[in-house]
Amino acid sequence: MSLQKILLLGSTGSIGTSTIQCVRRFKDSFSVSGMAASRNVDRLIDQIIEFSPSSVYISDPADAKKITDRFGDSIKVYCGESGLESLVNDTDYDILLNAIVGAAGLRSTIAALKRNKKVALANKESLVVGGEYITSLLNQGYGSLVPVDSEHSAILQCLAGVKDSTIESLILTASGGPFRNRSKEDFLSITPADALNHPTWSMGKKITIDSATLMNKGFEVIEAHHLFKLPYKQLRVWIHPQSIIHSLVEFHDGAILAQLGLPDMELPIQYALSYPERLPMHGKRLSLPQIRQLDFFDPDLDRFPCLKLCIDAGTAGGTAPVVVNAANEVAVEAFLENKIAFNDIPGLVAFALDNHQVHPADNLEIIEETDRSVRLTILNKYLSRR
Ligand SMILES: NC(=O)c1ccc[n+]([C@@H]2O[C@H](COP(=O)([O-])OP(=O)(O)OC[C@H]3O[C@@H](n4cnc5c(N)ncnc54)[C@H](OP(=O)(O)O)[C@@H]3O)[C@@H](O)[C@H]2O)c1
After folding, report:
1. Which of 6, 30, 31, 46 has its CA 20 to 30 A from that of 94?
2. C-alpha–C-alpha distance, residues 335 and 333, integer Å
3. What is the pTM of this model?
4. Residue 61: per-residue pLDDT
5. What number does the ligand 1 atom closest to the CA of 201 have?
């Protein structure tokens, strides 16, 4: 395959550093022409030394100056509120790998699609809050979208060469997180440290908390709805604690195809970058005789209401998923700062939805205005009603 230039957003995070591993393995296939990070300027500087990108973004102007002082005119440095979008609009690249966390990633996804770029999407929040708008851009022929999430990558791999009309359902698997076996009463004593202790995946803090509440799986159901264009009644979730089967496709003749692998994001990242080609990867191999047992359960929506909140919001459409995402980002931050309890995360999200009148979300202005107004007020409103 010809050399592909990557603009890597979130280069200092969990997905960002795994992406860098893939680039190191395939120096003839991939190069990094731009990078973006938020706070970790030291790691970004190390990455600049290794990959010599032409442009970078860092949130804080003081950190941007640090980079300019060090590298001079050899690199263009963006910062501040509009800097990220300028990086996406100005840099020369073939693939945008968006691994920023939260709705902060939406504008970059949209800007890259409008430039007709391929977007390898880890930032699932882009599709949760902007799914309808992004779908309309793709339908108009702008750019292309390839999932990085292991579940959606699994489905994409199972769907190679398949006729859409033969699909009966998509089944997303979930590890169940660290509280899969905890009783509802014991949820009251969950601390941030407990919730950050994921049993099978090593990830950034926000997605780790979302995995513990199953909000992450709810987001992935919404993501699957937009990526694979299926109604919510054809999307299912199975709890699978070993995280070996990454997702499954059920066909109208009853056959089920699954994609299996060790729980490691490097494979889905590499597949998204090389898609539709498949590149080799050396190292550890999955051995089912060693694992011996794979378990599956239906999710418990009583103990994990976030999953149902997402499916209901996705089904309602419009601004409802924007509200779920914004309220969840506020709730996760407040939980990590010990301002609210673990159970308050679904409580706050449900409260935000109850207090919202759903509108169509077919443009960026309405999405961003809804996101902003929820973030500004929801925590105080929720706390003051108790
Ligand atoms: N981790 C996984 O295994 C996994 C799997 C599937 C999907 N995802 C999705 O991938 C995304 C990233 O997850 P992660 O686990 O890699 O998160 P993470 O480790 O917290 O990394 C987030 C990255 O985004 C950067 N960032 C955050 N806000 C930014 C902003 N406003 N502007 C520019 N950069 C910003 C951070 O920079 P600093 O570090 O410099 O602050 C960091 O590089 C999330 O949407 C997540 O749901 C993750």
Report:
1. 46
2. 5
3. 0.97
4. 98
5. 3
Which CATH code of 3.40.50.720, 3.20.20.30, 3.30.465.10, 3.90.1150.10 fits the domain covering 4-147? 3.40.50.720
What local confidence, expressed as pLDDT, does residue 161 receive? Answer: 87
CB of 84 shorter than 6 A to ligand 1:
yes
- For 14, 104, 195, 281, the CA distances from 269, given in Å and listed in that order, are 12, 20, 25, 12
Give distance in angstroms: CA of 289 to centre of ligand 1. 35
Q: How far is the CA of 212 from the centre of ligand 1 (A)?
A: 17
pLDDT digits (tens, 9 = 90+) for 336-364: 999 999 999 999 999 999 999 999 998 99
> Do the strands 30-37 and 55-58 form a parallel or antiparallel pair, or are they unpaired?
parallel
Ligand 1 centroid to Cα of residue 92, in Å, is 22
* Ligand 1 binding pocket includes 204 (Cβ within 6 Å): yes
Q: CATH 3.40.50.720 in the chain, residues? A: 4-147
Q: What is the pLDDT of residue 1?
A: 82
Give the pLDDT score at 364: 96
Rounded to the nearest 10°, the torsion over CA 283, 145, 310, 361 is: 160
Pocket test for ligand 1, best of 100, 124, 246 (most atoms within 8 A of CB): 100
- The 10 Å Cβ neighbour count of residue 206 is 19
For 153-263+296-384, CATH gives 1.10.1740.10
Kindly give the parts of the chain with pLDDT less than 50: none
Buried b (16+ CB within 10 A) or exposed e, 36-64: bbbebbeebbebbeebebbbbbbbeeebb
Domain with CATH 1.10.1740.10 in the chain: 153-263+296-384
